Structure formats: structure tokens, C-alpha cells
Amino acid sequence: MVPELRALIEIQQIDVVIREIETANLILNKQLEREKEEIAKKKIALQKIVERKDVLQKDLRHNERMLQQIEQNMEGFEKKIYQVKSQKELEAVDHEIAKARKEKSSMEDILLTLILEIEEISKTSFEQEKELKKETEDFNCRSQKIESNININIQKLSETNAKKQEIITTIEPSLLANYERLREGRNNLAVVQVEGGMCSGCFIALPPQQINEIKMSNSIIRCNSCARMLYWKE
Ligand SMILES: [Zn+2]
Fold first, then answer.
1. How confident is the model over 9-38, as pLDDT tens digits?
2. Which one, out of 70, 125, 146, 166, has a CA that is 20 to 30 A from the CA of 233?
3. pLDDT tens for residues 110-125?
4. Which of these three, 171, 188, 214, is where a domain ends?
5. Contact, 74 vs 101, CB < 8 A?
6. What separation in Å is there between the alpha carbon of 178 and the centre of ligand 1?
7. What is the CA(226)–ligand 1 centre distance, in A?
């Protein structure tokens, strides 16, 4: 085999490995990103629930003070009953008392609704907080493993690249440039094996004469269809 073709085959194998490692890291990084976004979204959702709960609690305190005020007013009116001097005054006080009772009753309804709503939202926020805490812990644990895998891959990548650089020095620069251009335009594959009488890059059947030339391997022979460099593996 032409020595340069042998070196190119080796580089091609290295480039396949490099692409595999790069793809693996891309997937791992995307996974990390996606999971981070997921948790951030849940944090925002929880924050909104907590804010809503605060508003409801403020409402509740405000309405409780209003109820107290209504009750104080009622006490005042009830005392007044004993001090009235005429039927007309009695009717007026009775009217005030009836009005205050109505206010009290509707305020109690409002408070009850608020209390139920706060109970519900407290339950939801407690559950979601618990869930988020668990998910964050799980993610932190997972992300440590993912990041360690990413770092292992980066290390592998640098070793593999170093190996490629070593072999590159044995290849004539214009042939190497040719290889790199072809690889770029041919989905990372510039040097391919003949398999079942076909170019394993584009799967076109090769003429028997060409296969014989490839087997003799006195020069670098390219596929007529995809221009990839071909080799015969015994
Ligand atoms: Zn081809």
C-alpha cells in the first residue's frame, strides 16, 4: 500500500473518533443545558406561587382588621340600645346593628374563602418546593457525573488530536489539504474501504478494473462518483 494512503487511513480513523467524541460532548452539554432550563422554569413557577400566597395573606390580615372594626362597631351599637330615649332612636340603632351584622357575615365569608385559598396554595407551594429540592439534588448529582464525562472526553479529544498531529507530519501538505477539504464536504469521510464491490462512502458499485487497481494499491484511487479515496482491506 502507498505509505501516504496508509497514513490517511489512520488519520481518517482518528477523525471518526474525534467526531464521535465531539458529538458525545455536544449531546451531554445540551442535556445539561436542557435540565438547567427545566429547573429554572420550575423555580420561577414556584416563585409566582409564593408571591400569590403573600398577597393572599396580606389580604387576609387586612380583612381580619376590618372584621375587628365591624365587631367593635357592633359592640358600640349594642351598648347604645340601653341609652336610647325614643322609639325613633331605637329604630335607628337597630338599623345600624342589622347593617353591621350583614357586613360581618359577608366579611366572614370573604375570610373563609381566603383561608381556604391560602390552605390550598400553601399545600401546593410546599409540595412543589419539596419536589424542586429533590429534583435540584438529583440534577446536581447527575450534572457532576455528566461534567466529569465531558472532561474525560475533552482529555480524550486532546490525546486523539495529538496523535493526529503526529501522523500529519508524515503526509505531503497538499495531499493532506485535499483530504481535509474532501472530509469537510463528505460528512467527515474522505478515505473509505471497498466493501462488497462498492464504495462504502456513496455505495456505488465500482468497476472490477478499478477494484483491481485499488487492490494493487500503487497509487491513491478515488471513487468516480463521490471522489473519496478508496482502499482495499484484506
Ligand atoms: Zn463513492
1. 999 999 999 999 999 999 999 999 999 999
2. 166
3. 999 999 999 999 999 9
4. 171
5. yes
6. 16
7. 4
